[in-house]
Write a structure and sequence with these properties.
heterodimer, A: alpha+beta, six-stranded antiparallel sheet, four-stranded mixed sheet, B: mainly beta, Porin, eight-stranded antiparallel barrel, 69% strand, elongated
Amino acid sequence: MNRFRLMALAVSALFLQSCSPPSVGGGSTSGELADGVSAGTAPYALLELSTGTVTYRASLPDAATNPAYRFNQMVFRRVGPDGAKAFVGIFEVTQAQWSTLSSIGAGLTQPWLAIDTNVVQATAQANINPAYNIAYDELAVVLSGYAPTSRVRLMTPTSAQWEAAVGTSTGYSWGATAARSPLAAQAVVRETALNATTVTARTGGSGLVDSGGPLAVGSRSPSALGIYDIHGNVWEWTAGGTEVRGGSWYDTASLARAEVRAGLGQGLAADVDHALIGARLVLIP
Amino acid sequence: MIRFLLLSLLMLPVTASELVVRDVRLGLSTLPSSFDFTLKNSTTDTSGSDSFDGGLALDGGMRWSFARPGDSFGLIAGADLAIQGQSYDGGDGLTAVVGKLAGGLGWAATDTVTVTGELLAGYGLSSLSLPATTAAPSFSADGTVFDYELRFTATWLFERRFGVGLSTGWMIASHTLSGDDTDVTVDQSGWYVGLMAVWRINDEPPALQ
């Protein structure tokens, strides 16, 4: 009997040693691996603009309604093929966000104020509307000056990253054609953002209509990837400053297709600011 | 104190019994909980240290001795198959199935007690699974593991063919995993202890030629 008692005691001791909390020397579960996995796999990343703090989310049910995501925070969605995924902003950069970014790194700039309200209506100058009249060179200065932490960086998307945000390199996020229903639901383009009669009458003159402008970001439904305003609202710079993508509130839906690139052929250069051009950013956490 | 222990060891009888090990073993052992990791993909390149809640390994294997007739010392060789499980943050954690080869020295201290010291090298399949959190969906990655151990074991036969054993050792395990577009390495090292049941399938000494 003593032999079996000895065995039972040894088994008990073994299990107790295994199941008890780890010793101080062995460390306790700190969650570092879980944090790393979150950073590596979370669908959403939230950047607190003033501090550079990044937090991750498995889902973001309040994306359409939370005002913080258009003011002091930026929300990014992990998109792209395996091996080349990137955190792309779900919204175009708002005027409130631009003001915060530029005040941190480059001195406060508000380029949209330089546009006559006869060209883009005054109601477009609002915190939650996209920043516009942005030159790539100015964008680059603002982003290079934004370094609240040693790691976090904001960049303009590459063409591939921008197309990953669309979900396709041709057509629209919902399909190949500009079907009326998804166009009206998701895109801020001429056909959906302006009164067609007004546009026709007024564009015979000097160009831009005086009754239009970009809408508040996220005014329309998101794409299947959870990206807002990827078609229309404002053109978006891509890395390098030679191309803008996505069309605008003033342009027709055909120019909002994923394969359309406006660039040097349209007189665009990195130092050109334009009332129809804004930005969408990529987070490097 | 150390001198006393060394002196005691030297005074133990060294020719007590003939080394005859023909054992099948089934054991349970702990695993070191702390680990270092790296994690890399297109949006993350990070590393750090962490620890599992705890873990156990179920080992099955056999050992064979090679000793001259009458010798209490000899060579020991064998193989193990281990199933390892380590939980993380209350979830599944890391699991592995590892095949190991063992080689070392054995000493028959008495007719019923045998002490072995051996080196083990193993290779196997490994799987990491983490539960979903508010920050990320569930994550899983699969890969391989290399395992190296220095193990000391004492077995005691309480009947002619059956016995129990205690072991302790130092192990190094390196897991290389990939999943969800992410490459992960998990490196563990540390002490472990184990308990085993022993079945001596044959206790006949080698035949004299």
